[in-house]
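User: Just a sanity check before I run the rest of the batch. Below are the structure tokens for the first item. I only need the designed sequence back.
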């Protein structure tokens, strides 16, 4: 039996893939809901980095896990506010594409 150990490198590669998928989705997507989902994917990649470094480098100090907890809370609030804004825009305009909404620009 050949057993492979999952190392920090594996977590960092997974985080890089998640970050790339989310970032490309933010750049390419025209639908605002897809953009919010891609932002959540990017936040998950950041959380994975914090937790992986905490678990592999310094497990006694849980600062990475505390940062991940705060990022998760902030991400949940951001998503809730974003969905409320999208709902209000859709109610007024019947469109939720990023290109067609120009009123929010300062």
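Assistant: Here's the designed sequence for the first item:
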């Amino acid at each position: 039996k050949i057993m492979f150990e999952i190392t920090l490198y594996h977590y960092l590669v997974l985080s890089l893939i998640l970050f790339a998928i989310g970032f490309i989705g933010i750049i390419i997507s025209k639908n605002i809901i897809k953009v919010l989902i891609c932002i959540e994917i990017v936040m998950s990649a950041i959380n994975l980095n914090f937790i992986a470094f905490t678990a592999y480098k310094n497990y006694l100090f849980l600062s990475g896990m505390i940062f991940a907890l705060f990022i998760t809370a902030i991400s949940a609030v951001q998503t809730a506010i974003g969905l409320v804004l999208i709902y209000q825009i859709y109610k007024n305009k019947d469109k939720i594409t990023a290109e067609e909404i120009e009123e929010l620009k300062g």
